[in-house]
Amino acid sequence: MTKSISEKENKAIGKDELSINRFSDIGKIHVNWDIKELGYFLDYFQPTDFISEYVESEKSEINNIPVLTAGKSFILGYTENNNKTYTRIPVILFDDFTTDSKYVDFPFQIRSSAAKILIAKKNIDFDFKFVFYAMQQINFVSSDHKRYWISEYQFLTIPCPPFKEQELIAKALNTWDIAINLCKTILAELQRRKEWLLFELLFNNQKYFKSNEIKSLPVSKLLRRIKRPLTPNPLELYTQIGIRSHTKGIFYKEAVTGASLGNKSVFYIEPDCFILNIVFAWEHAIAKTSVREVGMIASHRFPMYKAIEGELDLNYLLHFFKSKKGKDLLRLASPGGAGRNKTLGQSEFLKLQIRVPGIDEQKKIAACLDKVDEEILLYEKKFSELKNQRKGLMQQLLTAKIRVKYEG
Fold first, then answer.
1. Helix (H) or strand (E) holding 182
2. C-alpha of 218 from chain center
3. Which positions of the chain have pLDDT values less than 50?
4. Which residues contact 215 (CB under 8 A, 6 or more apart)?
5. CA distances from residue 346 to 35, 326, 328, 333, 343 in whole angstroms, order as listed
6. Thinking of the domain 215-356, which architecture would CATH place it in?
7. Which residues lie below 8 Å from residue 354, measured CB to CB, with a gap of 6+?
8. What is the pLDDT at residue 210?
9. What was the pLDDT predicted at 29?
10. In this structure, are residues 155 and 115 in contact, taking their beta carbons and an 8 Å threshold?
11. How do 109-110 and 63-68 pair as beta strands?
C-alpha cells in the first residue's frame, strides 16, 4: 500500500520549508502549484450497464465496437453496437484491483465489472487528460486483492498547476502519444506483412518455383548434430548461454567457476549453428549461434546442428521454425504436458518434414525475410525510445522541472 501525502501533512511542514519543498504523490512540486486529491477532479460509476455479453477477436462490419479492459491488453476484441455501448467520452477506465488505467476517447463496451469508469466532476475547471497523465506518475503498489478507488486511490494527491498550464502540459505529452501510437501501428503492419511473406515464401512457394525445384525433406537430411564436450577446469570461469522463448534470441548468464558446474554435461558453443532449448522448444526457444558465443558453453539441453552444405541455408531454416507452422511442428515433436514436461524429442525433431527449394532460392528468401526483421527491429527500438522520452518528459513537466510557456 502507498501512503497518500495529504494537504494537512504538507501544511504541517514549517513555513520556510514549505516555500522550498512541497510534495504530492508523484513527488516534489512547484511552490506556486496547488495540490489536489484525485477525488477532487474525478467521479466514478460502475460499468454494469456496459458489460459486453460476447467478444469476437476480429473487427468486422457488424462487430466494430471495441471491448476494453483497463489492463495491458486494453482492447480484448470487438462486439456489435447496441444499448451497452458507452458513448459519453472521454473517460478514464480504472482497474479497481490493479489500479491500471487507460484514457478512452472512443465508444466502447467493457468486459469486467472489476473496472470503474472515471469521469470529470462538473463545475471544476481542469484539463481531464492532464489528470490522467498525472495518474500515470503515481507509484502505487496494489499488494492486496481488493478494490482501491473508494478506499485509497481517490485520496492520492497530484499537482494542480493553473488551467492553461495543465492544457499545455497535456498537449505536449499528447504529441508523444500520437508518435507512439503511429509507431505501434506501423509495427503491427510490418508484423502482418512479415506473416504474409512467411506464408507466401515458405509454404505457398509452388507458384514461384517449378514443382521439381521444391523438396520435402526430413530435418535429418538437412542438419547434422555438433557436439564438442568440455571437461571444466575447476578454477576457470565459464559463461553459459540460454535461449529466450518466443524467438527472442540468445542471452548470456553470469560467469561461473568450473567447480560450480560439478558433474554437469557441458559443450562448447560452435558458430553458425541452429540451437534450441529442448525444454522450451515448443515455446519457440530457438536461435542461431554466432562468433560472439565462441568460447561459451551450454548444457545438454541446448543441442546444436550445422546445416549440410549445399542442402540448407541456416537462415532459411530459422525463418521456417520462427513461423506459426514451424512452431506447430516443434510442438508436435514435444509430447507431454505443459511447461517442463513438454521436452523436445530429438529423434522426433529429426523426422520433421521441411519444404525446401534450391539452396540459391533459400538464400534469397532468407535475405528478404532478414530485411523485414531488420525493419521491425528498427521500429521496435524507435517505439521503446519514444516511450522512454515520454516517460522522462512526463516526470519533468509534472514536477515543474521543465515549464511550458504561457501568458497569464
1. helix 163-198
2. 35
3. 1-19
4. 355, 356, 357
5. 63, 15, 15, 8, 9
6. Alpha-Beta Complex (3.90)
7. 216, 217, 218, 219, 222, 317, 320
8. 58
9. 84
10. no
11. parallel
Topology, domain 7-160:
Adenine-n6-DNA-methyltransferase TaqI; Chain A, domain 2 (3.90.220)
Residue ranges, comma separated, of all CATH 3.90.220.20 domains in the chain are 7-160, 215-356
Cβ 369 vs Cβ 194: under 8 Å? yes
Q: Which amino acid is at 132?
A: F
Contacts of 324 (CB under 8 A, 6+ apart): 195, 198
At 35, which amino acid appears? I
Cell numbers of 20, please? 522550498
The phi, psi pair for 201, rounded to 5°, reads -85, -25
Pairing status of strand 215-218 against strand 353-356: antiparallel
Grid cell 462490419 is found at: 61
Residue 38 near residue 25 (C-beta atoms within 8 A): no
* Residue 96, all three cell numbers: 479497481
Q: Please state whether the predicted TM-score (pTM) of the whole model is above 0.85.
A: no
- Three-state secondary structure call for residue 393: helix
**What is the bridge-based pairing of β-strands 237-238 and 304-307?**
unpaired
Sequence-distant (6+) residues with CB within 8 A of 176 are: 386, 389, 390, 393
* pLDDT for residue 48: 93
* CB-based contact 23:30 (threshold 8 Å): no
Per-residue burial over 244-272, b if 16 or more Cβ lie within 10 Å, else e, is beebeebeeeeeeebeebeeeebbbbbee
* Amino acid occupying residue 399: T
User: Coil, strand or helix: which one is 360?
Assistant: helix
C-alpha span between 263 and 391 (Å, rounded): 47
Q: Distance of CA 2 to CAs 34, 96, 141, Å?
A: 21, 15, 6
